[in-house]
């Protein structure tokens, strides 16, 4: 489990296609505030977008259920993104054929993230949380 993060934010979005774009905009502001390196922020945007899109497209839950997004900075060298939805079914990697129009999102997350996974939400909540972590570059030591 995570220790107390340096910083964390949480947002709620409707389970609609436009929510991925809205989550990206909020994350861009946050990445600037947290001084996340540009390359890492760009990668995190892709990861966030994939996780939110999966929750919007594939979660089998009523349309009025919201998607929770949590972004944490557990240390100066790690960024964690969590997306929660009301569907208890855990996601699984698919092997999309070249002609398939979808099915590559989690493969992309697995390729870009330092680690990723999913687990049922805690007691008293329905659904699951899908998460990924991205290692951030360590600032260069000016005394070296």
In short:
With 144 residues, the chain is α+β, with helices and mostly antiparallel strands. It contains 3 helices and 5 strands, in the order E-H-H-E-E-H-E-E.
Describe this structure in words.
It is a single chain. This protein is of the alpha+beta class and 144 residues long. Helix content is 31%, strand content 28%. The protein has helices at residues 18-33, 38-58, 105-112, and strands spanning 7-14, 66-75, 78-85, 115-120, 128-135. The protein has a 5-stranded antiparallel beta sheet, with helices on one face. β4 and β5 form a beta hairpin. α1 (18-33) runs antiparallel to α2.
Low-confidence stretches: 140-144
Helical segment count: 3
The backbone outline, from C-alpha atoms, is globular
Major β-sheet, in short? 5 strands, antiparallel
Please write out the topology.
Elements: E1 7-14, H1 18-33, H2 38-58, E2 66-75, E3 78-85, H3 105-112, E4 115-120, E5 128-135
Helix pairs in contact: 1-2, 2-3
Summarize this structure as a short list of keywords or feature phrases.
alpha+beta; 5 strands; 144 residues; 31% helix; 28% strand
């Amino acid at each position: 489990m995570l220790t107390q993060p340096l910083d964390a934010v949480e947002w709620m979005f409707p389970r609609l296609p436009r929510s991925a774009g809205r989550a990206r905009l909020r994350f861009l502001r946050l990445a600037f505030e947290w001084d996340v390196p540009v390359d890492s922020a760009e990668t995190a945007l892709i990861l966030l977008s994939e996780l939110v899109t999966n929750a919007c497209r594939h979660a089998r839950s009523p349309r009025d259920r919201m998607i929770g997004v949590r972004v944490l900075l557990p240390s100066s060298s790690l960024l964690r993104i969590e997306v929660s939805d009301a569907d208890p079914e855990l996601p699984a990697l698919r092997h999309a054929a070249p002609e398939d129009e979808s099915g590559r999102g989690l493969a992309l997350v697995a390729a870009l993230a330092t680690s990723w996974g999913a687990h049922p939400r805690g007691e008293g909540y329905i659904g699951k949380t899908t998460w990924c972590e991205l290692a951030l570059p360590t600032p260069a030591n000016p005394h070296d």
